[in-house]
Write a structure and sequence with these properties.
By secondary structure, the protein is mostly helical. Helices cover about 45% and strands about 10% of the residues. Bound molecules: glutamic acid. The site of glutamic acid has 8 residues, from strand 8.
Length: about 475
């Protein structure tokens, strides 16, 4: 029987959670849930200068908002933790010691200037830049002397040049790298901190991770990570490298394309289900085209349906899924959109009236204003429609309004007394009452609108039409 699936999301808490990373988290989460496995959350905070507690809290909140519950991670420790890399230094120290003892790693004292010079010479000679191996050639005495002198050194992994590193990528298929092209790489920085690719690989093994979906910007790290794991005798996960998220112009998705972070779309009022319906289809194809709830999203997720082409993020599609999400949302989920804009207790009735016309909270605010607020004098098309209604129409409407209690009665009185019906009746009425030519069903709006507001708008329309 194959080992149970364990996936993870391993963000660095150095800023807002980008939509691209949220998609990475989603695919790892879906894969674990689809295969009855475990999903871990590991915080990669070894870069002390750039990692902040505020980013970390925001990250956890965004992940929770999207519904990615983790089986182990921050706040849910287990025997494989801790799940913050900053608390795992002793694990990395042991691994360094093992690699050094086995001759797989050596200290390097080359200065940044020397390395830069080597790099330039190699480039000038038309060769790809890679570490020239200077410190690999130091004898044991020289190493001991320098170590004693306390000169800060990095630790490099020694790559055995005459081999190929191969792996079968879950997205990109078979990959092959010549080890000779990799060069001996740094696994511990001169300040003693672990390099990204080292602790990332060591932790995946230590945490029993079996599958890793991550951005294709990490493909070049993978052969190095496989070498480190092999040298330590540790199992490697299967990697799948996801194509980048790009904007309509083909450039990597960024703030310039509008919302690029989960915090942005959340602040605009997009619902998590809308974001998930979109992200699940960026670089992954679902057999079903329509709305997917969480169960269907999990059941239909398939690593074989991951594509290699750059995935286009289209804000129009996000709005499309948002409409669907609003349509399905519980009233409770939408009430915060109208709180303090709609009289207390009326929220559910108001939402029922306008729901089909809502995409974002700003739309709810707008309709709340139409129903309960003070509108400036009607202008544009609405004013023209009112004028076409004519003064008598509004005289009749005002008289009827004084006598009847609700919308249905008002409309039948208007029909009976003016002989009008259809557009001729409803367009001037809608324009007068909402200052718009379309919108939610008028009956529902009017039954919410305070009587004094209805009267004032009919009077104003009467003046315009005169
Ligand atoms: N901390 C890395 C990142 O945020 C993780 C990469 C990986 O998933 O392996 O890019």
């Amino acid at each position: 029987m194959s080992a149970p699936v364990v996936t993870r999301f391993a963000p660095s808490p150095t800023g807002l959670l980008h939509l691209g990373n949220a998609r990475t988290a989603l695919f790892n989460w879906l894969y674990a849930r689809r295969h009855g496995g475990r999903f871990l959350l590991r915080i990669e905070d070894t870069d002390a200068a750039r990692s902040t507690d505020a980013s970390c809290s925001a990250l956890l909140e965004d992940l929770q908002w999207l519904g990615f519950d983790w089986d182990a991670g921050p706040g849910r420790d287990d025997e494989r933790g801790p799940y913050f890399q900053s608390a795992r230094a002793s694990i990395y120290r042991d691994a360094y010691a093992r690699l050094e003892a086995a001759g797989h790693a050596y200290p390097c004292w080359c200065s940044a200037e020397e390395l830069e010079l080597q790099r330039r010479l190699q480039l000038a000679a038309g060769r790809p830049p890679r570490y020239a191996g200077t410190c690999a050639r130091l004898g044991p005495d020289e190493r001991a002397r320098r170590a004693e002198a306390g000169e800060p050194a990095t630790l490099r992994f020694q790559v055995t040049a005459d081999r190929a590193v191969e792996f079968d990528d879950l997205v990109r298929g078979p990959q092959q790298f010549a080890a000779a092209d990799l060069g001996d790489f740094v696994i511990r920085r001169a300040d003693g901190s672990a390099s990204f690719l080292f602790c990332n690989a060591v932790d995946d093994a230590a945490m029993g991770v079996t599958h890793v979906f991550r951005g294709e910007d990490h493909v070049a790290n993978t052969p190095r990570q496989l070498l480190v794991l092999a040298a330590l005798g540790l199992p490697a996960p299967r990697y799948g490298h996801l194509p980048l998220l790009v904007g309509a112009d083909g450039a990597p998705l960024s703030k310039r394309h509008g919302s690029a972070s989960v915090a942005d779309v959340r602040a605009e009022g997009f619902l998590p289900e809308a974001v998930l319906n979109l992200l699940g289809r960026l670089g992954h194809t679902y057999a079903a085209e329509g709305w997917l709830d969480a169960g269907a999203r999990i059941a239909g997720f398939d690593a074989d349906s991951l594509g290699r082409a750059p995935a286009h993020f289209d804000p129009g599609q996000l709005r499309h899924w948002q409409k669907e999400a609003v349509h399905r949302a519980s009233a409770d989920a939408l009430v915060p959109w109208v709180r303090h804009r709609v009289p207390a207790g009326e929220e559910a009735r108001f939402l029922a009236a306008v729901r089909a016309n809502l995409v974002l909270p700003t739309d709810a605010a707008e309709w709340a204003h139409v129903v309960y607020g003070e509108l400036p004098c009607a202008g544009g098309e609405a004013r023209e429609a009112i004028a076409r209604g004519g003064p008598e129409f509004f005289d009749v409407a005002l008289a009827a309004h004084a006598e009847v209690a609700d919308y249905a009665a008002l409309v039948s009185a208007l029909k009976a007394r003016t002989g009008r019906k259809g557009r001729e009746l409803f367009q001037p009425l809608r324009a007068a009452l909402t200052h718009r030519l379309d919108g939610p069903e008028l009956a529902a709006l009017l039954d919410l609108m305070p009587r004094a507001t209805v009267r004032a708008r009919l009077e104003s329309a009467r003046r315009i039409a005169a």
